[in-house]
Request: fold
Amino acid sequence: MTPLCLMEKVHKSFRMGEDAVEVLKGIDLAIERGEIAAIMGVSGSGKSTLMNLIGCLDVPTSGRYCFAEKEVLGMADDELSELRNAHIGFVFQSFHLLPYATVLENVLLPSLYRESMKDGARERAVELLRLIGLEARMRFRPNRLSGGEQQRVAICRALMNDPELLLADEPTGQLDSRTAAEIMNLLVAMNERRKTVIVVTHDPAIAAYAKRIIRIRDGVIVDGQAD
Reply:
């Protein structure tokens, strides 16, 4: 089976004045469909840049990246946006919920940008909230929820368009250890429902939930074998 994400000799550089700073240096990486993996690295290792490329928020400077069998390099911005909307759900450390919208409205948000997902959207959103035990709070605004509840809502929102990939960037960074475990168990449960899950983290305890840990240092993958 073709990997969901396939990188070959990927480099990424950024302009700093007249100089180019190379952040990723020849990345080779394959993420299989249905996998749950963690990307680990210290600050400045290149893990955030790698995450942005995997999630099609940015494109390589050179090399080859295929996502869902589509060549990413050379895509226009609107093509990248459509690829993200159709295939990728994002979960961030800071939740990024709209404060003036209800829980249900926050979960519904991705369906507003994808015409094919509008039919039955409310029913799907309610079912997702039921799945994570927050159906009774769907008319609440985010400020009435705990941090863990807000992150669960963010995960529901990320799942709204039925993405192939759930990409979580430090998803437990603002949570206590007990709540962090609850969130990671939820991500594992989503993986068991055949979602591909990638967690970007610096925390070994969080990475341990994955079946594969990919370690990056100084823009190079130094270990990507199953732990």
Notes: The mean pLDDT is 91.
